[in-house]
Specification:
- It is a single chain.
- The protein is 40% helix and 17% strand.
- It has a four-stranded antiparallel β-sheet.
- The protein has helices spanning 12-16, 20-29, 44-50, 60-67, 82-90, 103-107, 122-132; strands at 5-10, 33-40, 72-78, 116-118.
Protein backbone atom coordinates (compact mmCIF):
# COMPACT_ATOMS: atom_id res chain seq x y z
CA UNK A 1 0.00 0.00 0.00
CA UNK A 2 1.34 3.43 -0.95
CA UNK A 3 2.15 5.90 1.77
CA UNK A 4 1.36 9.57 1.63
CA UNK A 5 4.88 10.93 2.07
CA UNK A 6 7.95 11.24 -0.10
CA UNK A 7 11.32 12.94 0.13
CA UNK A 8 12.97 15.36 -2.27
CA UNK A 9 16.10 17.45 -2.55
CA UNK A 10 16.54 20.43 -4.78
CA UNK A 11 20.09 19.75 -5.91
CA UNK A 12 23.07 22.15 -5.88
CA UNK A 13 22.73 23.01 -9.58
CA UNK A 14 19.13 24.18 -9.24
CA UNK A 15 19.88 26.04 -6.00
CA UNK A 16 22.88 27.82 -7.59
CA UNK A 17 20.77 28.72 -10.63
CA UNK A 18 18.10 30.36 -8.48
CA UNK A 19 15.29 27.86 -9.08
CA UNK A 20 14.25 27.11 -5.49
CA UNK A 21 11.09 29.23 -5.59
CA UNK A 22 9.95 27.99 -8.99
CA UNK A 23 10.51 24.35 -8.08
CA UNK A 24 8.69 24.71 -4.76
CA UNK A 25 5.82 26.36 -6.64
CA UNK A 26 5.65 23.41 -9.07
CA UNK A 27 5.60 21.05 -6.08
CA UNK A 28 2.77 22.85 -4.29
CA UNK A 29 0.87 23.42 -7.54
CA UNK A 30 1.17 19.66 -8.08
CA UNK A 31 -0.92 19.12 -4.96
CA UNK A 32 1.89 18.33 -2.52
CA UNK A 33 1.95 19.72 1.01
CA UNK A 34 5.43 20.55 2.33
CA UNK A 35 5.67 19.05 5.83
CA UNK A 36 9.43 19.57 6.37
CA UNK A 37 11.79 21.97 4.60
CA UNK A 38 15.34 23.22 5.04
CA UNK A 39 18.28 24.74 3.21
CA UNK A 40 21.41 22.79 4.12
CA UNK A 41 24.64 21.48 2.66
CA UNK A 42 25.79 17.88 2.57
CA UNK A 43 29.36 17.17 3.65
CA UNK A 44 31.30 14.63 1.60
CA UNK A 45 30.61 12.09 4.34
CA UNK A 46 26.87 12.91 4.28
CA UNK A 47 26.72 12.52 0.50
CA UNK A 48 28.63 9.23 0.63
CA UNK A 49 26.22 7.90 3.27
CA UNK A 50 23.08 9.14 1.52
CA UNK A 51 24.10 7.63 -1.82
CA UNK A 52 25.78 4.48 -0.40
CA UNK A 53 23.34 2.34 -2.36
CA UNK A 54 25.16 3.54 -5.51
CA UNK A 55 28.71 3.02 -4.18
CA UNK A 56 29.57 0.31 -6.73
CA UNK A 57 28.32 2.32 -9.70
CA UNK A 58 30.76 4.23 -11.91
CA UNK A 59 29.03 7.59 -11.32
CA UNK A 60 29.18 7.38 -7.49
CA UNK A 61 32.27 9.56 -6.97
CA UNK A 62 31.02 12.24 -9.32
CA UNK A 63 27.57 12.15 -7.68
CA UNK A 64 29.05 12.55 -4.19
CA UNK A 65 31.23 15.47 -5.31
CA UNK A 66 28.30 17.16 -7.05
CA UNK A 67 25.87 16.75 -4.16
CA UNK A 68 28.34 18.19 -1.63
CA UNK A 69 29.52 21.16 -3.70
CA UNK A 70 26.83 23.59 -2.59
CA UNK A 71 23.58 24.02 -0.68
CA UNK A 72 20.54 21.84 -1.24
CA UNK A 73 16.92 22.18 -0.19
CA UNK A 74 15.63 19.06 1.56
CA UNK A 75 11.90 18.48 1.92
CA UNK A 76 9.36 15.92 2.97
CA UNK A 77 6.18 16.12 0.93
CA UNK A 78 2.71 14.79 1.60
CA UNK A 79 0.01 13.77 -0.86
CA UNK A 80 -1.98 10.65 -1.64
CA UNK A 81 0.26 8.30 -3.67
CA UNK A 82 3.16 10.67 -2.95
CA UNK A 83 6.13 8.65 -4.25
CA UNK A 84 4.62 7.73 -7.61
CA UNK A 85 3.01 11.13 -8.18
CA UNK A 86 6.24 12.94 -7.33
CA UNK A 87 8.28 10.73 -9.67
CA UNK A 88 5.85 11.74 -12.41
CA UNK A 89 6.18 15.43 -11.51
CA UNK A 90 9.98 15.41 -11.58
CA UNK A 91 10.25 13.57 -14.90
CA UNK A 92 12.92 11.33 -16.39
CA UNK A 93 16.49 11.45 -15.05
CA UNK A 94 17.67 12.64 -18.47
CA UNK A 95 16.02 16.04 -19.03
CA UNK A 96 16.07 15.46 -22.79
CA UNK A 97 13.68 12.55 -22.19
CA UNK A 98 11.58 14.28 -19.51
CA UNK A 99 7.99 15.14 -20.35
CA UNK A 100 6.93 18.75 -20.84
CA UNK A 101 5.70 20.30 -17.61
CA UNK A 102 8.06 18.28 -15.39
CA UNK A 103 10.60 19.80 -13.04
CA UNK A 104 13.57 18.22 -14.81
CA UNK A 105 12.37 19.33 -18.24
CA UNK A 106 12.16 22.89 -16.92
CA UNK A 107 15.25 23.10 -14.68
CA UNK A 108 17.73 20.23 -15.21
CA UNK A 109 20.83 21.01 -17.23
CA UNK A 110 22.03 17.44 -17.80
CA UNK A 111 21.51 13.86 -16.70
CA UNK A 112 24.07 14.35 -13.93
CA UNK A 113 22.82 17.77 -12.85
CA UNK A 114 19.14 17.04 -12.96
CA UNK A 115 17.78 19.62 -10.50
CA UNK A 116 15.91 17.36 -8.05
CA UNK A 117 16.00 14.04 -6.26
CA UNK A 118 12.85 12.09 -5.59
CA UNK A 119 12.52 8.93 -3.53
CA UNK A 120 11.94 5.80 -5.59
CA UNK A 121 9.91 3.83 -3.03
CA UNK A 122 7.86 4.30 0.11
CA UNK A 123 10.59 2.58 2.12
CA UNK A 124 13.33 4.86 0.75
CA UNK A 125 11.15 7.92 1.27
CA UNK A 126 10.98 7.14 5.00
CA UNK A 127 14.72 6.39 5.21
CA UNK A 128 15.72 9.50 3.26
CA UNK A 129 13.36 11.76 5.19
CA UNK A 130 14.77 10.49 8.49
CA UNK A 131 18.32 11.02 7.19
CA UNK A 132 17.66 14.76 6.79
CA UNK A 133 15.03 15.53 9.43
CA UNK A 134 14.74 14.73 13.13
CA UNK A 135 11.29 13.63 14.28
CA UNK A 136 10.59 17.08 15.74
CA UNK A 137 11.24 18.59 12.29
CA UNK A 138 8.57 16.49 10.59
CA UNK A 139 5.06 17.89 10.73
Amino acid sequence: MATNRTFTMIKPDAVANGHIGNILAMITNGGFKIVSLKLTQLTLADARAFYAVHAARPFYGELVEFMSRGPIVAAILEKNNAVEDFRTLIGATNPAEAAEGTIRKAYATSMGENAVHGSDSDENAAIEGAFHFAGREQF
